Amino acid sequence: MPATRFRGLNHSTGGAQRRQRTAPELCVLLCVSVSLWRILKCMQTSELAPSLQRLFSELVDGLTGRPGGYILNTGDEGLLRSLDKLSAAEASRNANEGATVAAHAQHLRYGLSLMNEWASKGGNPFANAKWDEAWKISKVDDAAWQEIRNGLRGETQKWMEILKTPREAGGVELTGLISSIGHFAYHMGAIRQINKSTRGPREGTF
């Protein structure tokens, strides 16, 4: 290997000695380091966005009139239309002394509102989040139940737009985007365990 390729190294018997780098070299190294840091810390979601939007849309709006899905069975109406079938009295019921359907729906609404605020305004809206408020909901009347469902519908539509729009995301942000789908699916499943009329069709029964 020609010695000229590594002029900064002294290959004498005294061992390798590194010469001092010049200011231009240091600037180049700094720029390269910053670029590598940005690559490792941030990525564009352009390739992931269609999949994120598709999966979330499937949970929210179902598969009615759409070919097979990735999570739900064909013909499933999705969570929003499932909740629309429930009366306020049914939404006020729980199972095994757990949270009510209304509480789960409000929790999803509130969580998505924080995600939407973070995505649109930045900052950390989760710092002062009041997660326990939704779980205090037990009995709701017609007006309150309608308000929860309308609010949830609005937040899901906003989040759908955010998921399908390419953006720069670091590790924490990307994990948050992906986990929002799993979080929604978890509470959708909990609601369907509480009230069987919100459940989708079994595979092969449509």
Tell me the count of domains: 2
Radius of gyration: 26 Å
Please tell me the overall pLDDT.
Answer: 84
What structural category do the secondary elements indicate? Answer: mainly alpha
- How many helical stretches? 8
Helix content: 55-70%
Quick one: biggest sheet? 2 strands, antiparallel
Number of strands: 2
Helices and strands, in N-to-C order? HEHHHHHHEH
Please tell me what the overall shape is: globular
Going across the major beta sheet, what is the strand order?
Answer: 1-2
Low-confidence stretches: 1-17
Strand content: under 5%
For the terminal residues, how far apart are their CA atoms?
Answer: 71 Å
Keywords:
206 residues; mainly alpha; 2 domains; two-stranded antiparallel sheet; globular; disordered N terminus
Summarize the structure.
The chain has helices spanning 23-41, 49-61, 78-84, 88-91, 101-121, 132-135, 142-164, 171-194, and strands at residues 42-44, 168-170.
